[in-house]
Structures are given as C-alpha cells and as structure tokens.
Fold:
Amino acid sequence: MIQVDDRFALPEEELTFATSRSGGPGGQNVNKLETRVTVRFDLASPSLDDARRARIRERLATRVSRAGVLSVTSQRHRTQAANREAAVARLVELLREAFAEQAPRRATRPSRAARARRLRAKSLRSRRKRDRAAPSPDD
Structure:
C-alpha cells in the first residue's frame, strides 16, 4: 500500500507500469534501454470513493484519459528503477494536491492608493504615446 494522505492509501496492485525509450541526450543508453516509466491508475478502482474520483477528474483533467486512466511519466533518471520510484512519487504528490481542501476565495477590492497609482500610470503611458506620435499638419 502506498500512503497518499492520512485517510487514503493506494493499493500497489492497482497500478500498472509501462516502459519505453527515453528521449534526449544519453548516447547508447537512450538508444538501447527502456528507462522511461509510465505509471497508470484506473479511476474505476474500488479503492476510490465517488467524491475522490470526481475531484481527480476535475483537478487532474489534463492527465486523465477518456477511458478514465490517470497517467504519470518519468524519464529524468538513467535507470528504470529510479524512474519508477519518481513516477510513483509524482503520482502520490498529484493525488495529495487533488485531495487537499482549498480555502474559499474571498473577494477583495483595490485600495484607494492602488487605484490612484493605476490611473497615474495610465496617464503617464498616454502622455508618452501622445508625445511619440508624429505631429499633426495643423501644428
């Protein structure tokens, strides 16, 4: 079991791993060995409740396929084992961030000084552009 947070642990048997050749520099190591590791987690897993599943789909939408599989890839290290550990660590980190409660946003207003600074900057920019323009034929 991989502990994600204090209330959720991810069973290792629900993860699938795929390897492929890494890109980038590395010479023969890159050309011959499959060191890139992709870890996949199916969101149809019985270990997830509906609330967590919905939260993952919402917050990690770019990483979830149409089939409902969450994918994380690592190719940073030169060995498959190190990339496997890095991919699992990144998956756990992403799940932690997805499950974390976000504080509700409180609306704020700009201060009077901030509004004055903004208007002053606008007038300076306007004056600078006006001075930069070609003189009109009337002048």
In short: The chain has one domain: 2-99. The longest strand covers residues 36-42. DSSP finds four helices and five strands in the chain.
